[in-house]
Known about the structure:
Largest interface: A-B, 35 and 34 residues
Distance between the termini of chain A: 49 Å
Oligomer: heterodimer
Shape of chain A: globular
Radius of gyration of chain A: 21 Å
Amino acid sequence: MKEQVQTDFDKITKTSGFSERxxxxxxxxxxxxxxxxxxNRKHENWKFSDISQIIQKNxxxxxxxxxxxxxxxxxxxxxxxELEHNKIVFINGRIEKIDFDYEDKDKIEINDDSNLDxxxxxxxxxxxxxxxxxxxxxxxxxxxxxxxxxxxxxYHTTNKKIKSKNVNLRLxxxxxxxxxxxxxxxxxxxxxxxFINIFYNFDLKKDAILKNYKIDKxxxxxxxxxxxxIEQDANSVSETFILSSGSIFLKNEINCxxxxxxxxxxxxxxxxxxxxxxxxxxxxxxxxxxxxxxYQLIKSVLGKDSKxxxxxxxxxxxxxxxxxxxxxxxxxxxDESSEFNAKPELEIYADDVKCSHGxxxxxxxxxxxxxxxxxxxxxxxxxxxxxxxxxLDVFEKITDSEVKNLIKNMIGLKE
Amino acid sequence: MRxxxxxxxxxxxxxxxxxxxxxxxxxxxxxxxIKFISNIKKxxxxxxxxxxxxxxxxxxxxxxDWQKPKYPKIDYQNLYYYSAPKSTKDKPKSLDDLDPKxxxxxNKLGIALVEQKRLNNIAVDAVFDSVSVATTFKEKLTEKGIxxxxxxxxIQKHPELVKKYLGSVIPLTDHYFATLNSAVFTDGSFVYIPxxxxxxxxxxxxxxINASETGQFERTLIIAEKGSYVSYLEGCTAPMRDENxxxxxxxxLIALDDAEIKYSTVQNWYPGDENGKGGIxxxxxxxxxxxxxxxxxSWTQVETGSAITWKYPSCILKxxxxxxxxxxxxxTNNYQKADTGTxxxxxxxxTKSKIxxxxxxxxxxxxxxxxxxxxxxxxxxxSNYTQCDSLLMxxxxxxxxxxxxxxxxxxxxxxxxxxxxxxxxxxLHYCQQRGLNPEEAVGxxxxxxxxxxxxxxxxxxxVEAQKLVGISLEGSVG
Lengths: 415, 478
C-alpha cells in the first residue's frame, strides 16, 4: 500500500498546480499517514471495527489518485424537491456546485483553501490522509447575527466512473456570533467499492446554532468515514443527527469541544442495518467549561449478519463544574447473527457534575408482539409497529420541524 | 520524638514491620532463581517444568500498557522472588511453637490466631510473607473431606488435583503478570470441596507482605466439586514501606455442576503516604470458571489500599444456567490509583451475570471502572445487569467508567447503567442538622452508598469493611 500511496501522491502533486508551500504541508501529512497506516484493532478507537481489514475485504487494493481536472455533470434528479434549500454538490469528491441562492450574499463568505492555513493537528491517521489528498476545500463563514433562511444540503454523490478509489472531502464552517446554520448531508452513491473519507470542521462562536443532519439511507457498497470536529463558544448549541443505514461500512465520529460556558451538544443517532453491514458511531464530548450540557441518544435495529458499534465518551475536566452529561444507547437484535457492541465511557475530573449513561440491548419484546397480534395484527405488522415506535423517539429529537418532516418522508416513517 | 513516632503509627494503622531473619532467594529473575524456589519447596519435577515453561513464555511477553494508572518501570531483576520467615523452616506443630514476634504482629493487626481460633468459627491460614505458617481448624475440615492447605502442601500431597486444575482457568500464557506469577509463585491457598459438601465455616486467609523489596506472588486455587458450597475470605494489610512493592497474585476458581463459590476480599494494603510516596502495586489476576451446569461464582471486593490497584475478577460462564456476580467497592484517597472492574464472559445457555460497582474517589486520586460483558452467539437467553456508580469528593480527583459491552445473541439482554455525582449538599445538611459532624456525615452517606455491596460480605468482614470505608476517607472532607 505504501508505494501506491506515494506514487499516487506524486502523480497528483505534478498535475495539481498546488503552491510549493501547500505541497510541502501535504507531504508532511502524507508521511505521517504512511508512518501510521490505516488504523487497526490495536487502536483503542478501532477496537470493534478494523478499517484496514474492512478495506481489504471489501475493496482490496485501493487507489488514491483521482482525476479532478474534468467536470462532472450534475444529475439534478437527486435534488430534494419538497424543500427549498441551498446546495453544495460533491461528485466523486470534486465540488461541482456551490449555491446560496436564497441567502443575502454579503452575509456569507466563501473562501477556498488557497487562503487558508491547513493546520489540523491530531493523532488520527485518516485525517492525515484527508489532509494529504483533499483536492480543494472551502471555508464557509456565516456572519454575525445572520440566520440562514433555508437549510443547506450537501449532496455527496458518486457515479460509475470511480471504483476502488479513496476519495477525500473536506469542508470548514465558521459560525460567527449569534448566527445559525442547518446543514443536511445527503449521500447518494452509484459508484461502488470506494473508501470515502470526510472531514468537517465547525467553529461555533458565541450564541451560534448548528444543526447537522447526516442521512446515509441509500443502499451502497462504499466504505465511509466521517469526522466532525465541533468547537463551541459560550451559549452555542450544536445538534447532530445521524441516520446510519445505507453503506456497507460507515463510521461517524463526532468530536465536540464545549469550550464556552452554557454551551451544549446534542447527538442523536439511528442504526438501521441488515446484510453484513457494519456501522459505528463514536462520540467524544469534551466538557471544558462550567455549566455545559450534552445529551446523546442512539438507537439501533439490527437485522441479519449486521453489526453496530457505539462508542461514546463524556470527558469532564476539573474546571467544568455543573456539567450535565447524558448518554443512552438501545439496540434491538432481530436475528441470531446480529451483533451490538457498546463502549459508553465516562472520564470525569470535576465533582459537582451530573453524568450518567445507560445501555441496553436485546430482542423484541415477545409479550408486546403477543399483545398486538391478539388485537389482529400479523406478526410482521406488529414487529414493524414496534420498531417504528422504538425509532420514532429519536426522530422526535430533531428540533427543526421542516427537516424532521423531510427526513420522515424520506424514509417513509409513519406516525 | 516519641510523639512523632506515634504520629506515624496513626497515619497508617497497620504500618509496621517485624524484624525476622529471612531466607531469601538471590536477587533477580532467572532460571536459577526459579530452580531455587522449586528446590526449597521440595517440588516435584513436573512443577518445576511448569514454572520454567512459564518463564520461557515470559521472555516473549511485554507488560500491558493500556491501563489508566501509569507507574514507573519495574526492574524485575532487582527484586527478591522468595523470602520466608526462618522460623518456619521446621514447621511448627502448634500455635505455641510460633515465633513470638510473629504472633505479636498478628496481635497488632487484630487477628490474634489463638483468640480467633477460639472465638471465631473461622479456619485461618495465615500467610506471613510467602509461606503458610499455621493452619487452624484443620481437623474439623478433614472430617468433611475438605482440603484447605497451603499451595506447597497441596503440590506434595494432592499432585493429581493440582496438576489437573492449576492453570486451567488462567493459562500459563495469559498475560505478563499472570505468567510471571506462574513462573515464580511462592505459596498461597488451596481449597478442595468434595462432592455434595457444604463447607461448614468461612475459610479465610490473611495475607501480609513483610520483607522489604519482596514481590509477593500468591497462587490460590479453589475447586468446588458437584453440588458443593464454599465461602472464602481474603484480607490484606501490609507494613509501611517507601519502595513500591509489587504484588502479582493469581486466583483461580473452578465451580463444577451445581457448585457455588463465594470469594470475598478486603484489601487494605499500604497506599503510600499523603504525597503519594511508596505504597503497593496490586496487579492481581482473578478468574473464576463456572464449568458445570447451574454453578455460581460470586466475587465481592472492598478495595481501600494499595498505591495502584489493577485487577478484574472475572467469571467465565461456561456451564448452562450458570451465574456470575461481582460486587465491588473501591475507595481511593490521596494519590491512590485504581483501575478495576470485572469481565463476564457468557458462553453457556441461560447464563446470568450481575455487576454492582461503587467507586469513591477523594483527594488527588484517580479511579477507573473497566468492565467487559461479552455474550457469545451460543449463549442463548442470557442476561446481564450492570450498575456502576461513582462518587467524587473534590475537583482534584477523577472517576472514570469504561465498560465494554458485546452482544452477539439476539435472545439475550444486557442492561447497563452508570452515574457519577457528588454527595449532595442536602444530604450533608440533613445529617449535620441532626448533630453529626461533617466527617461522620460523609461516613454515613458513603456507607449508605456502598450498602448494596457491604451486604454481600460475610458478617465478620462486613463490620471490618464498614470501619475501613470510614478510615479510608478520613481527612478528605472540608
